[in-house]
Design goal:
- With 29 residues, the protein is mostly helical.
- It is 93% helix and 0% strand.
- It is built from one helix and no strands.
Length: 29
């Protein structure tokens, strides 16, 4: 259970990071 929670947390952080990069890339234009 703990391993699954950690994996999901890491996935959410990676997704949020990708969204942030995409937002910055769009704002730059």
């Amino acid at each position: 259970m703990t391993t699954f929670d950690r994996r999901e947390e890491g996935f959410e952080k990676k997704f949020a990071h990708d969204e942030e990069l995409r937002f910055k890339a769009m704002a730059r234009r």
